[in-house]
Amino acid sequence: MNLTVNKERPVNLDLTAMRWPITAFASMPHRVSGLFLFIGTGFLIWALGASLESKESFDSLKECLSGVVPKLIIWALLSALSFHFVAGIKHLLMDIGVGETLEGAQMGAKIVLALAGVLIVLSGVWVWL
Fold this sequence. Notes:
Blueprint: H1 22-53, H2 55-64, H3 68-95, H4 102-128
Helix pairs in contact: 1-2, 1-3, 1-4, 3-4
């Protein structure tokens, strides 16, 4: 069996040199935010359990969550939820035929990024104030 290999094909692509389309900037974070939400659910379940255990446990949790690191975790989870929700709505709209063209997908990605950015900033204001 004679196998010929094209010597002109790229072997190691430099991903940092590639120009990513706007749709990739909406698609990749959607997947990452879903994974982060899945992992962060453990933190949320722990906090819910601690808040329901007793009044002392609730007060202890409230004090614990007033620190900088827990607030960052909560903000990160709210940010992931905001982005994942908005991008999920875009995917549901595409499932019913809205924005399936290249131009529609690009416009949808821009809307997702803008709306998620606004929601992330608003959730940051809510957590930190």
